[in-house]
Design a protein that fits this description.
This protein is of the alpha+beta class. Helices cover 33% and strands 13% of the residues. The protein has twelve helices and eleven strands. Strand 5 and strand 6 form a beta hairpin. Helix 2 runs antiparallel to helix 12 and helix 3 packs across helix 8.
Length: 381
């Protein structure tokens, strides 16, 4: 570990003590059984480095244990909200198709029931719509059409714009808005508009589970009598076919660093992205959209600090640690994933774990803070 951390510190221009501390924190959590493995991806001033430890799949049904590596595809869970759904909605606003004040019911008429007639796209992005957080779709015996009907006609849990309720339902609706607006499925939209232009070679909403060694295994699933591997962990996403606005993305740490760099460059496609767009448009988002998404939109709601999609410093879901600055932003995923960006330090940190491998009780909250603190502290060396 020490030699790899030293090489990483030199490559990134960071203090070796901080890089070693971040790696050591990961190894401690693996030894403690919090997660079977992890991949850390770091970008500083445009330079990338990764560190992997432990196993992506400790006990596959066939073959030997699969070590975690920089090429391991992790189930990103709710990182899907900011890597898939957010940029597509912002693009549609850039293109004049939507605005933040567009009523959801104007695009999805069935949504306009049960007091939701005035709910806006912006309120869905900031989790201020008043929609409930979650619902059980997967065990009701419903077909997909019925599940979507239940999602879109669900009643409000609270008065809109009065509190932040982190809602999967809101991002499910945003995914449908994207499909309705573009006339193509969500996975096709994100591939053509985000993943391919950014050179996110492995990221996908439609994984190939016949290649299990490429994926980090998640929770044991009784119906298949095995750990999920290349199959989305989130039950709602799985029931709906895996292509959803709130969960379902699989990606490597390198893929996510490419995405983070676009944000550090305020919407521009990085020169190293290897774009497949034929040398055309050089941006994923307008600079104004990128800036707007990372400033607070919930200042009127006590105890919250949400951007468009992003979690900002000081919000109750802030996982940035102690040393990242007031302009940092990021997001987490239930399976044990996270991405955090500090533009002032030109730093992005991606931490991918499969902490749900042994069940849902393990937490990587402290690990995230320790890793972020160590790496942020290393910038000043």
């Amino acid at each position: 570990m020490e030699s790899h951390a030293k090489a990483g510190a030199e490559q990134l221009g960071l203090g070796i003590k901080g890089v070693k501390s971040a790696c050591a924190a990961i190894e401690r959590e693996i030894a403690a059984g919090t997660t079977p493995g992890a991949v850390l991806g770091v970008m500083h001033e445009g330079k990338q480095w990764s560190y992997s430890a432990g196993y992506a799949n400790p006990k596959p049904k066939q073959g030997q244990p699969v070590p975690a590596s920089k090429d391991t595809l992790y189930d990103c869970a709710s990182l899907t909200k900011v890597v898939v759904t957010l940029p597509l909605i912002l693009q549609l606003i850039d293109e004049g198709v939507l605005t933040l004040s567009t009523k959801v019911s104007d695009i999805l008429p069935s949504f306009g029931t049960a007091g939701k007639e005035e709910i806006t796209v912006g309120q869905l992005l900031t989790h201020t719509s008043g929609l409930q957080a979650d619902m059980n779709l997967h065990s009701q015996g419903w077909d997909r059409e019925r599940m979507w009907d239940v999602v879109l006609t669900a009643p409000l849990a609270t008065k809109p714009d009065t509190e932040v309720i982190y809602s999967d339902l809101g991002y499910l609706a945003l995914g449908r808005i994207i499909e309705k607006s573009l006339g193509i499925p969500l996975d096709q939209a994100v591939k053509g508009r985000v993943l391919d232009p950014l050179g996110m070679r492995y990221a996908t909403l439609t994984p190939l589970p016949e290649q299990p060694s490429r994926y980090a295994a998640t929770e044991y699933e009784n119906t298949i009598q095995d750990h999920l591997c290349g199959i989305v962990h989130d039950e709602k996403a799985r029931a709906l076919g895996g292509v959803c606005g709130h969960a379902g993305l699989f990606a490597t740490a390198g893929d996510l660093l490419q995405y983070a760099r676009m944000w550090l460059e305020q919407g521009a496609i990085p020169a190293t992205a290897g774009s497949e767009s034929g040398g055309g448009e050089s941006r994923i988002l307008s600079r104004t959209a990128a800036i707007a998404a990372t400033r607070t939109h919930t200042g009127h709601i006590h105890g919250t600090n949400r951007g468009l999609g992003w979690v900002l410093k000081g919000d109750k879901m802030d996982a940035s640690g102690d040393w990242m600055g007031p302009g940092c932003y990021g997001h987490t995923g239930f399976t044990g994933t996270s991405m955090w960006i500090d533009p002032e330090l030109d730093l992005a940190v991606v931490l991918l774990t499969n902490r749900v491998y042994g069940g849902r009780s393990s937490s990587v909250a402290q690990l995230r803070a320790q890793v972020h603190n160590a790496l942020t502290g290393a910038v000043a060396w």
